[in-house]
Amino acid sequence: xxxxxxxxxxxxxxxxxxxxxxxxxxxxxxxxxxxxxxxxxxxxxxxxxxxxxxxxxxxxxxxxxxxxxxxxxxxxxxxxxxxxxxxxxxxxxxxxxxxxxxxxxx
Length: 106
What we know:
Elements: E1 14-19, E2 26-27, E3 33-34, E4 45-52, E5 64-67, E6 73-77, E7 80-86, E8 90-94
Antiparallel strand pairs: 1-4, 1-7, 2-3, 4-5, 5-8, 6-7
């Protein structure tokens, strides 16, 4: 019997996110490389939304979201790691839809 592929669908208020690759090393304004392991304070991360549940109201697939990666659940699918969180754990979204923006852009 061939392998059947099952589509993952998020439930309720859950969001599936892939952490953005640029969240590793970063550079200071003076050009100094700061390794990803450097701890200064709790650091939030950006990720790309891959799926949302039926009760998610403010986040859409394709948005970039800001969240605390330490408080989320990891899941591995076909060798890639994703995070699953509640919509309320998202601190901000970066999207082309402008409704109540801050005036800051990525």
